[in-house]
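Two entries, shown back to back:
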Amino acid sequence: MLPVANLHLKDLYETTVEFFTLRSPAFSYRSVPNDDPDSEPPTPSDISPASDPVATRQNESANLRVKRTAAKRARGPTACSCRSFTSAAASTLYTMRREHDRTKSELARSQADSASLEEKCKSLEKTLKETKDLLRARDLEIEALKQDKAKLIADRRSLSRPPSSLDRRRSHDVIHHRSNSSQSLSQRIRLGPELAEHRDGDAASQAGSSRHRASSDAVRDNISTISEEERAHTRSMEVFLTKTDLWSGAQVIQAVQDLNSEILQFAASAVEVCTFTKQRTSHSKIGQTVNDVTTRLGPSLSRMLSTHDHSQDPMLVQLALQGSIAFCISRALSSFCIGYQSKGNITLTQIYTRMFQSEPQPMSSRWRALTHKHIHELHPELSNYAVNEMTDTILRWTLDVFLICGCTNPQPNPTSREAFRTRFQSQVKRISKNACALAQISREEIMSANFEVVGAESGRAFDTQEMVDVFEDYGASKGAVLCTTELGLRCSTRKATTETAAIPEENIERRLLLRPKVVLDSAMDVIDQR
């Protein structure tokens, strides 16, 4: 600002002098100092004539504005350049500061990485040292084992009592030595004492070398024989000591539950297509049928089926039908091999029971699996025969139950019974196949335990720990068991004991994995109230 003001100060001064000269006659240039001392003071003739003061003022104002504008223009680029320089310097400083911070962070990160790598290097060196120590210790153990093996071989060679084969070879050597001695004696008599002594020494050295060779050969043969026997014994035991199970306990439980569901579906479907009447038809075979049903379901349930009216509610018939099928399947699964001859089944069952109580669990289970497998390989048609036989038995027992309950459809005549068989043949056959498959699973594919399908016998007292009442939600469970409607599952395992117990059953651990469902005497009260 100061250079611009000094630049225009003289012009402003001259303009002001002229103004006051024109306005005031008393004002003279004498009072104004002159820069040049030698110059003469101005005279009035030197002063330009006066002009219009207003126009002059306007011209001066215009000139002043022009000069001010020029000064601003001259001053503008300098300020802008200063501001641009300042902003550029500030941005450069900010960039340098950011680069500095980034460099510091990278340096800190590099230092941290270097520290972690040093720690890893130390740990690896420590691990390498430990590994070397372990390898050195293992080498020492190997050397010790080699020395023990060499010592054991030397001890075996220096046994005082060699095997029987060695005895035979020694006896042969003794006989040969005796014969050589007799021959040397005769030669000594004939050839003289010196030659006899020489021959005697040669015979003794030959006998000693032959005995040494015989002893070493016998020991080597004995060791190889023992090793072969041990390997053969180990291979034979590997077959029987395996505990690999192809099915788990949960899968076996699910298989039994699926079988119970299929039995329930068949019983419900069969009862729905049947019609019952109060009047019992007189039939020549009704007495024998009642006796057969009594042996399967018990006298109490058979009497109820014969005397109760099922025309309105055949619930009791359905329960009896489930009990009859469950009894058929449980009896079949209790045998060692379904469909096999009865005498052979009884013998195999007794053998397996004895083995299960006295031998280790893997050994008895493996024997059971191999025996069951080879029976089916010897009789390839046995599986189909067992399925067909079980299917015919279930259908026959079902028709017997319908007969004593007063069923009018199907009729007792053979044609109606055959039509019923044809209608439910496939459904019952599926039940039989699942039962036989369950038998194969429990016999051949499970080694760690013995799984048994169980049910409650008719007339047995009710036990909440071992069975479930079907109608327990409708009232108190009272009375004896009438029949089993759903099968249960039990697992038996022989304990690993070092000493044989006085009672074999004490070594057996039994667990009830699935409780069977039963019908009690109190179920009649619930059925009558329906």
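entry 2 starts here
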Amino acid sequence: MHRPDFANFQRAILRFALAVWLITGAGVTQAQNAAALLSEQDYFREIPQVFAASRLPQDPQDSSGANTLLDRNYIRASGARNLSELFMAVPGLQVGLSAGGRPVVAYHGFSGQISQRMQVFVDGRSLYAPYLFGGIDWSAVTVPIDEIERIEIHRGSNSAAYGANAFLGVIQIYTRAAVQASGMSAQMIQGNNGIADRSVRWGSSDDNIQWRVVASQRGDQGLLNRSDAYKTSTLDFRADLQMSSTESLMLLAGTNTGRFGVGSPNSFADPVRDEKKATTFAHLKFKKLVDDGQEWSLSASWTRDHGLDTYQIPMLSGDALDMHNNRQANRYSLEYQHYNTLTHSLRASWGAEYHRDQVQSFELFSTENVQKNAAWRIYYNQEWKPLNEWTLNAGGLIEKDLYSPQQLAPRFSINWKPTGNHVFKVGYSSAFRTPSLFEQKSDWRVRDENGQTLYVKYLSRGGLVPERVKAVDLVYQGQWRPLNMTFDLRLFREELTRLITGEFYVLPNSETFNAVAYDLRNNANALQQGAEYQLSWKPFAGSTIAFNQYRARTTSPKQSIQDSAPRHGSSLIWMHRADNGLTGFAAYTKTSPITWLGEATPADEQKNLLVSLQKTTKLDQATVRTSITWRRPMGQFVEYREMQSLPRSVWLGVQIER
């Protein structure tokens, strides 16, 4: 069944390669003449290095696959309050809001309320949450937006570098070094719909040690037609110690506590209430610079997630059923990483990691015992440049945990640069996602006051194996320097197997009111083919116009899987920075209908318009930034699930830095 589709994909690649060959061939002379007028410094300034692809600092033309970089200028200009909002205009990424303060970010779909098929890091620490379905809980992220230096998105599978859960994509978030945040800063954001954000930063630096600490609050009234107002409080700390000219130590720590409105006004089984959540972490990283081409690091981290959700369900007898949906999860991680320039044409990165997960929840597992899992992985990735026009990236990873068989994730790519401004990349990768503890061992049931089972929600039969994806892609990156224009295109074919989704099964010898239970099994496959591209144009100094688009066709025997991947999405962005300190930003995004996994009804076509205007003023020794941001859903559409929608919002911001 897949052979004809793959043949069409091959023909599409050949037609595309021929078309771009003609374009680039016709423009070679013009590009070479323009290149002669540019210094080497110009090239390095316009082409930043990327790290997310292979754990090596690489020129984007030499890296494997497709990458998107969001720098600090873009992050600030966007006026975003929530981290997830920054990804709305990235091709292939879908952003939803399941409830106030609970964003969902997915790459190519296949996601529910937890983004479990994508890996996210902050300064090298994984944000993977081991409870429930495993994945990224965006509401628990502690990093303040204003402390982010840049974000790299690797659009495509990358288990070869990062292991389990780098299934369809990787997001690397890098915060500013403490020396960049010295002094004091205070920020206030106020708007309609209860928008009220506050932030205070204090930092200091000397020759050997730099540190900064940020305290912040954020909250609003959430979505319309829901009682889901939320408020989070965050404390984030970073210290950088320069032990010698070649040795450094970085310490990061933080906590995020929040109250999130949940429940439905007219539901007895799910009443309106507040859920409490807290996340605390510590991350220590030692780095040793051996020489200009060699560096190794050793890092250790600990992350703790805690949730508390208690409420009562009235009974026909007049009594009330006490519900306690509580949890506590810990992840411990130790990692060694090394990269080295082996020869003038060969560079490599390698390393090993061990992490241990612990989850305790009587409600989810019907026991007070701590559920444990541990995994180790080793990886190797290399970049070989036998000629200036050719770059070969190859690598792989081996991983094993307590519940899954050993997994191998290879990756290969060949990059060809016919000119200095154009590059073609052809790559293959195989990636995996290991099941979470809940997926393997769930026993979630409702009991009466005597401990008698009334209803079984989830009852795992165990034995799950990792999901797999095989991806083939063709990437083209081009620059037309005389026109100040860049273009990035990815054609992809992703074959997903052993996907884990839910199904009902009959309980043997059931003594409860329901004779069936819900379980998660490796029961779905999918094939996704499509294209995504980014076009950026700088018509004049300080101004950038970007147009991004994603189109895909997804087929699956399971309708819920097929419906969870949107068919298309697009965005148009304009950003301008004037010499007088005025910055303008406008973004229009659109995504086709999607039914998020676990939902019974589809979310309508999403259309959003965001406009932000900012002004930077110098006042004695202080810098004052004022802003106004307006976000409007275009039309009345369902946000994530039926009966809820996004409000129109406007907020004012003032920040004073000294």
